Amino acid sequence: MTKPAETVVRAGDKVSSEAHGLTELLEIQKAAFLRDGIPDAKTRVSRINRLGQMLLDHADEITEALNEDFGTRPKELSIAADVAGCMIDLTHQRRDAEKWMKEENVSKLQGLLGYKQRLRHEPLGVVGIMGPWNFPLQLTIVPAGSAFAAGNRVLMRPSSVTAKTTDVIARVAPDYFSIEEFAVVTSKHGGGADFAKLDVDHMFFTGSPEVGKSVAQEAAKNLTPVTLELGGKNPAIVDPVQDITEAANFLADARMVNGGQVCLCPDYVFVPESKVGEFTEKVVARWTKNFPTILKNGEYTSTINEKNYTRIVGLIDDAVELGATKHQVIPAGEDLPNAQARKIPPTLLTGVKAGMKVEEDEVFGPVLTVYPYRNLAEAIDKINSAGHPLTLYWVGKDNENLQRVADNTRSGSISGNDFALHLLSSGLPFGGVGKSGMGSYHGKFGFETFSHARAVTVSTMPISFAQIMSAPFTKSDKRLTKMQMTMWRFLQGRASRKSAKG
């Protein structure tokens, strides 16, 4: 039975999460979950509402902090991604949580025969959420909303790399939540490795595959289930009949979202061999138009820190040294790449071959690699030789070529002709497969990720399976077993014959 709605946090409840240690926060939330039981719909909606209100009330502080964390990050991007972008799924969770949490009768007919079956959707308890630096709020707040819809408590750890943004959320969260419901974990509680060791009821991580492996290993020690939203080198394929200008403009724009620092950005693109030169020219022209200045341009997102800046520049230099050609957009009079501003010019690489580091590493920056192809089989084979990407971009019509690509590759999603369209729909799952992750969220998929589907069966049937399946086995039991085998052999034979006929 669900409990009545909780009272919204009062002035006397405003305790900062930093007043408690990491394990103490977990103990507080676990004790509160056991004390209060499964929350009702009103409580869940209240928590989701407060999560959204917290973002909207402090949107200006959040965008300012994000700009400081990155060095340069346009306010419009921060609002669209880390504030308004969260509201789509929070609204869906708030609207449908009551419907999703209802107990289901599985088979009314079997119930009339005395075999009652019900399915309960129960919260797991305390959910730990670890977020990355590229979208530090969208990729923590959205899963937190799903966890609340499912009835859980949340320990949320945004990235330490975007420390100023984390500090804003940690400071204002007590105005909206008791730490029994929602607590923000900061670097003062320890590192991400410490958080991964927590014995939570579900661990949700978004970040690189390398760190994801460590999180999964630590979670396994507690038999904690994990959802891993990882990265990957996302390919794009330009259909042979696609207008090359449209393809170049779209992929040039998609590569530069957040300075290329998005797990969904296209990383490399297959272009029909005869059109590579034209595609290259069109991409460079698009970037030249979009970025007449870079160094002093507040709309050109900086690389997040020196470590990543050095890594990306190193990938470009390594490729060029081994024979690749770089095509860069550097406005007149600007010293780029620029370590002080951490700005790397938009870069397109051609002639990339095996052995170059950019072939293996996810760039996560303003660099796009172009490969020529003569037929779709070449592109498909190249994609399948790498780990399954988070998304695969198709540039062209919804036609037989797209169907062939979909049937012969694996990826978390397929995005046609636009950037990350599935993020706009709470009716679609967001998640990877293989090296790009496990599990999914958004909409009902998020609710299910943070819920336990608990089966309840009650029998009033005249026969007892316990009696039938335990000694002594009577003549009636043996006849029943023989009848079962005769029935299943008949049904299996019929199915096999039907399958053989095609």
UniProtKB/TrEMBL annotation:
Active site: E229
Span of domain Aldehyde dehydrogenase: 41-456
Entry superkingdom: Bacteria
Name this protein carries in UniProt: Aldehyde dehydrogenase
Cross-referenced InterPro entries: Ald_DH/histidinol_DH, Ald_DH_C, Ald_DH_CS_GLU, Ald_DH_N, Aldehyde_DH_dom, Aldehyde_DH_NAD(P)
Organism: Gordonia liuliyuniae
Family: Belongs to the aldehyde dehydrogenase family.
Oxidoreductase among keywords: yes
Keywords: Oxidoreductase
